[in-house]
């Protein structure tokens, strides 16, 4: 069964350092999402792509976070510089099309710890 | 998107039906009700969704009230592996489609 691939699974970084996460969505899925999940809370949408275009990045802290999906396939989320409050699970998801009748498939996530 | 309200936690005995309620009293006519679950340390998993008719698949059944202000997710024969946080989400379609997660319900299935 096709899966959303994310790497790394775990990342420990020092504050003020740069960190990057990678996501490979299910083949053919045009919509890609990045979520952040703080322990004990539900996932929060950071950015949503339709192909290579950003559809929604209203919750992305743009002073330190950036996301790209250059060829409309895989995607990278970057944090620079990392802060202690960025410690969280970062989840990537993809769906076939931009529409309400299609479910999103999530990856296993990247657990980030900033020390 | 409409706000949803769920109890923070529920318990269920293994083999019994688990009925998880969700209130979405401000849901609009074009919003679907989605259910996802998240097992510890994994990404969320899609379960089922519906607009106004009851829906059933291999995982669960979704019962939506006639006025669409609330719904119930039913796991007919809960197992220990169904222990997870269950999220009820109201989502519109089109270019603004996105899943907004709340805190969900922690369902604990007990032996």
Question: What can you tell me about this protein's structure?
Answer:
The complex is a heterodimer of chains A (115) and B (111). Chain A contains no helices and eleven strands. Chain A has strands spanning 5-7, 10-13, 19-24, 31-37, 44-50, 53-56, 65-68, 75-79, 88-95, 105-106, 110-114. In chain A, strands 2, 4, 5, 6, 9, 10 and 11 form a seven-stranded mixed beta sheet that branches. In chain A, strands 1-3-8-7 form a four-stranded antiparallel beta sheet, with no helix packed on it. In chain A, β7 and β8 (75-79) form a beta hairpin. The model of chain A has no long low-confidence stretch (mean pLDDT 93). By secondary structure, chain B is mostly beta strands. In chain B, the strands form two sheets. Chain B has a five-stranded mixed beta sheet, with no helix packed on it. Chain B is globular, with a radius of gyration of 13 Å. Chain B starts with 8 loop residues before the first strand and ends with a strand. The mean pLDDT of chain B is 92. Chain A binds chain B through residues 4, 33, 35, 40-45, 48, 50, 55-56, 91, 93, 98-101, 103-109, and chain B through 30-32, 34, 42-46, 49, 85, 87, 91-104.
Task: Produce the secondary structure layout.
The complex is a heterodimer of chains A (115) and B (111).
Chain A: E1 5-7, E2 10-13, E3 19-24, E4 31-37, E5 44-50, E6 53-56, E7 65-68, E8 75-79, E9 88-95, E10 105-106, E11 110-114
Parallel strand pairs in A: 2-11
Antiparallel strand pairs in A: 1-3, 3-8, 4-5, 4-9, 5-6, 7-8, 9-10, 9-11
Chain B: E1 9-13, E2 18-23, E3 32-38, E4 45-50, E5 55-56, E6 61-64, E7 70-75, E8 84-91, E9 105-110
Parallel strand pairs in B: 1-9
Antiparallel strand pairs in B: 2-7, 3-4, 3-8, 5-6, 6-7, 8-9
